[in-house]
Amino acid sequence: MKCFSFYIGEKKDEPKSIKSVSIRSNNSTFVEGDIRRSGSELNSQDASDNSTDSLRRTSFPSLSQRSCNLKVFTVSELKSSTKNFGRSVMIGEGGFGCVYKGFVKSGEDPSKKIEVAVKQLGRRGMQGHREWVTEVNVLGVVEHPNLVKLVGYCADDDERGIQRLLVYEYMPNRSVEDHLSPRSEAPLPWARRLKVAQDAARGLMYLHEEMDFQIIFRDFKSSNILLDENWNAKLSDFGLARLGPSEGLTHVSTAVVGTMGYAAPEYIQTGRLTSKSDVWSYGVFLYELITGRRPIDRNRPKGEQKLLEWVKPYLSDGKKFQLILDPRLERKSIFKSAQRLAVVANRCLVRHPKNRPKMSEVLEMVNRILDSSKDARSPQLPLRSLVPMEASENTEMKNKRRIVDHRSRENNWFVRVWRPKLLRTC
């Protein structure tokens, strides 16, 4: 699924004042001044509905301000490690450019070599360059088990001009999108899907809540969740990330970018970005895990192309809900767990962003589902504990409706849960 940029009115994301990182290489002409002139999306001061936004925003911590263990590579080193960027070692291709598998000397033990993924910037002009700088800004100063590790970067010259490359830890089990694809030889087991949901929530919670500054991912999707050798999930590709609003402000106003099918409706309509935009994208991703389908798939019949619109009619009762479960999985064995994960997704997909949970709350709900699924003998989670805020209105009348026999209650719980108005994103 390709990333796209779409703008509402005037283009707001062009930087007026740049505060960026100092990135130097002994053999490079791509020095601090070049980066400062080009700017970083994270550090750009955007036009905002609130004119004080650009004055009050705290600039993103730079590599020169924080300790950093990133290695500076030369083009010749990376050419040697990737067979001259040969197609035989190319492992991916995206909006940024091509990704190659290679081997470089370990920073901890130079006598050893480690596997890495080398991402080479495509010829996309300043926008691609800003994304490159943003990746270095973000991954150079954050560290978490559920964020992909940046080993180093290259800003060097060769006969083709300036080369911009990023060197990451190698993730041998590819992306979650690869394993959810119908072309995948073996479907991702349900237990592993729940673990991926947990890992991804941990990564987002760290970005949103666990640092002295907030980062909004802005392009959360299954293809940006990579799996290591132990199948741990890690968020990757931070080229579109943004610094969250400063204290006293509710949002960041920015050009609207993202991936079709994942972007939150209020962000598309207004350009107002908050961490709750990532929460919406996470909710979409949960339905990917449940159904095995992409958010938008033009190869399907017309009524099934948009995932959230397709699932909505099936959420009225338990019997219908079974029909949206990934047919490659054992539906009966995952039914209860999938129902509960769908409730979490619905909380994330509440139309009003203020009523969506924080990622720490989402993680707590996902943790409870994992704990319940690991021990089949443990009591099932009460469904009402996961009902979104909109569904709690008119509580007295709803309590009367709940006085029904057990079978009816089991089959119709989703009617009460599915209150949020979903999706007009595309």
Automatic annotation (TrEMBL):
Keyword terms, alphabetized: ATP-binding, Cell membrane, Kinase, Membrane, Nucleotide-binding, Phosphoprotein, Plant defense, Transferase
Subcellular location: Cell membrane
Membrane disposition: Peripheral membrane protein
One Pfam family matching this protein: PK_Tyr_Ser-Thr
InterPro entries: Kinase-like_dom_sf, Plant_Ser_Thr_Prot_Kinase, Prot_kinase_dom, Protein_kinase_ATP_BS, Ser-Thr/Tyr_kinase_cat_dom
Annotated GO CC locations: plasma membrane
Subunit structure: Interacts with FLS2.
Name used for this protein in its record: non-specific serine/threonine protein kinase
Organism: Quillaja saponaria
